[in-house]
């Protein structure tokens, strides 16, 4: 393809620039600009409690000073193990202000999953939801984290809500238990309360600032194969992707939008759309610690959303819930779906309910994450992942020889190049070399076709990751847990397609002679070692597993066989 031509720009929505320049500065500068421009405007809302941009800026400066007092400096990794909450936003920007590196973690991860990541990044300070602090305390002594900052979500709520949670009734006790813990947070590591971190004079402006090329975030991903590894994202990478998102949505009203953070901010998709993009446009960010239809619809009555990034099951459930309760969703002008296939039926239902657009985007953790999307306008093309974002180039290549381009219209591996492409994998030079070709081209592992207008359609995946509820599941990780169970000789883990898009985790297991399949026991073992969304919904005993000439299990054949035998995904879910 003639990259100079970029045929896809002809299909950009009116107002979307055909060329793109990365803004100057860092994510710290991005926040400062919004604090200056939108100071009295509400920046955050959490169960009705609000924080202005001025207040957010001051909290970030105080938290940065508090973290500095704990020894955090430039280049240090700081682990965040938090759900969506105001403290998450403050901690994120406070770490960056010191020139340190944010490492995001799923707070639902098991001890085993957290251990791998903490071993890999080597953070000495972790900012942790108080319910998860005991899990961090249980990490082995050789894990270098020495200080844990404990965050109580309830303290970010309005006083009336906090009082209601103290009522001596079962419902209040259950709600409080889901948000915080009464367990003593003792252990081998020093525990500091979040309020203590904030109880400092604001960090002075003269304190050295990070540069655009400094690493801002380590975002863990399974990439195209194997166990999770840290994708290195710079300030420039994330700043560029936020700016690309702004450019993609003509009609945004800076300082007047309300963005709903129903996506987890420890995920690359939620991180960019909610933590950086929303702040860059001076939006009010309404935060939800987990997705709950009733919570979102209650909030929509009081603070109507205008921009909603999510995944297809969330759109389906919100549309159905709003129709049932009579809640008006017509304030939502823009909705961007990602992480899984967007069914046309979801688009039709959502757009009928809101009168706004619902379009599909495409990206990977390694591209900060968004790299393509359907235009927000009449040129969109359902069934495709859209066209490359401004400033993004693509190549379609032979997956066996990625330096050889495919002929126009022929399927091949998608390569991406642009300012949002990551710098490599943390401490993994060999895998970085495999993923990034000369000239900065990133191998996505997705097989696509491109039509004459530049629209991309995914037809297959080289990688065998399972995408469930918008989260990536590495089959080898789940297989390792299954193989460790008594009576299991081998296993193959695959994704079974859901009717509404996405996949469910399924396992085919080969048992030892005389062993009996106990599905519930295997699931229980998986729940003890894996996050809930990784636990197989379907477990099937097989007589043998198909293998290649070198003995590798052929997962694609396993998947086809399960589907041919009538096994299907068992239900919907949002991956939480």
UniProtKB/TrEMBL annotation:
Pfam families: AMP-binding, AMP-binding_C. Signal peptide: none annotated. Residues 477-552 form the AMP-binding enzyme C-terminal domain. It comes from the Bacteria. It is an enzyme of class 6 (ligase). One of its GO terms (molecular function) is long-chain fatty acid-CoA ligase activity. Keywords: Ligase. InterPro entries: AMP-bd_C, AMP-bd_C_sf, AMP-binding_CS, AMP-dep_synth/lig_dom, ANL_N_sf, ATP-dep_AMP-bd_enzyme. This is Long-chain fatty acid--CoA ligase. It comes from Arthrobacter pityocampae. The lineage of its organism: Bacteria, Bacillati, Actinomycetota, Actinomycetes, Micrococcales.
């Amino acid at each position: 393809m003639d990259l100079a031509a970029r045929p896809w720009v002809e299909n950009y929505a009116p107002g979307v620039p055909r060329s793109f320049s990365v803004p100057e500065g860092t994510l710290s500068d991005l926040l400062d600009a919004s604090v200056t421009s939108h100071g009295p405007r509400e920046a955050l809302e959490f169960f009705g409690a609000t924080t202005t941009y001025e207040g957010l800026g001051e909290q970030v400066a105080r938290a940065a000073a508090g973290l500095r007092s704990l020894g955090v400096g430039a280049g240090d990794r700081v682990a965040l193990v938090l759900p969506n909450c105001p403290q998450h936003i403050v901690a994120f920007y406070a770490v960056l202000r010191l020139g340190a590196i944010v490492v995001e973690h799923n707070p639902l991860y098991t001890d085993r999953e957290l251990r791998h990541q903490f071993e890999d990044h080597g953070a000495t300070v972790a900012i942790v939801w108080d319910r998860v602090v005991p899990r961090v305390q249980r990490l082995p002594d050789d894990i270098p984290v020495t200080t844990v900052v404990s965050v109580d979500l309830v303290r970010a709520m309005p006083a009336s809500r906090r009082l209601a949670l103290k009522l001596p009734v079962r419902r209040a006790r259950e709600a409080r238990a889901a948000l915080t813990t009464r367990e003593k947070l003792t252990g081998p590591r020093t525990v500091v309360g979040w309020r203590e971190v904030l109880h400092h004079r604001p960090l002075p402006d003269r304190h050295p600032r990070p540069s655009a090329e400094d690493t801002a975030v380590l975002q863990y991903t399974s990439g195209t194969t194997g166990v999770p590894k840290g994708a290195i994202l710079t300030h420039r990478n994330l700043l560029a992707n936020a700016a690309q998102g702004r450019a993609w949505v003509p009609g945004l009203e800076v300082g007047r939008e309300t963005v709903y953070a129903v996506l987890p901010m420890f995920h690359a998709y939620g991180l960019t759309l909610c933590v950086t993009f929303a702040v860059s446009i001076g939006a009010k960010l309404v935060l939800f610690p987990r997705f709950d239809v009733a919570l979102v619809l209650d909030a929509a009555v009081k603070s109507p959303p205008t921009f909603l990034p999510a995944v297809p099951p969330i759109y389906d459930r919100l549309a159905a819930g709003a129709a049932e309760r009579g809640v008006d969703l017509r304030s939502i002008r823009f909705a961007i779906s990602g992480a899984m296939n967007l069914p046309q039926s979801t688009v039709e239902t959502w757009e009928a309910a809101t009168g706004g657009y619902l379009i599909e985007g495409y990206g990977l953790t390694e591209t900060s994450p968004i790299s393509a999307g359907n235009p927000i306008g009449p040129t969109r093309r359902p069934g495709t992942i859209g066209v490359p974002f401004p400033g993004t180039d693509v190549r379609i290549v032979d997956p066996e020889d990625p330096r050889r381009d495919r002929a126009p219209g022929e399927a091949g591996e998608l390569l991406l190049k642009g300012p949002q492409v990551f710098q490599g994998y943390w401490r993994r030079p060999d895998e970085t070399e495999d993923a990034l070709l000369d000239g900065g081209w990133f191998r996505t592992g997705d097989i696509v076709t491109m039509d004459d207008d530049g629209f991309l359609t995914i037809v297959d995946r080289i990688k065998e990751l399972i995408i469930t509820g918008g989260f990536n599941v590495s089959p080898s990780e789940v297989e390792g847990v299954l193989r460790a169970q008594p009576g299991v000789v081998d296993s193959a883990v695959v994704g079974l397609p859901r009717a509404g898009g996405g996949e469910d985790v399924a396992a085919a297991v080969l048992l030892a002679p005389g062993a009996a399949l106990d599905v519930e026991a295997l699931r229980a073992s998986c729940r003890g070692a894996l996050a809930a969304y990784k636990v197989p919904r379907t477990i099937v005993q097989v007589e043998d597993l198909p293998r290649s000439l070198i003995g590798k299990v052929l997962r694609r054949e396993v998947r086809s066989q399960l589907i041919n035998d009538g096994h299907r995904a068992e239900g919907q879910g949002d991956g939480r």
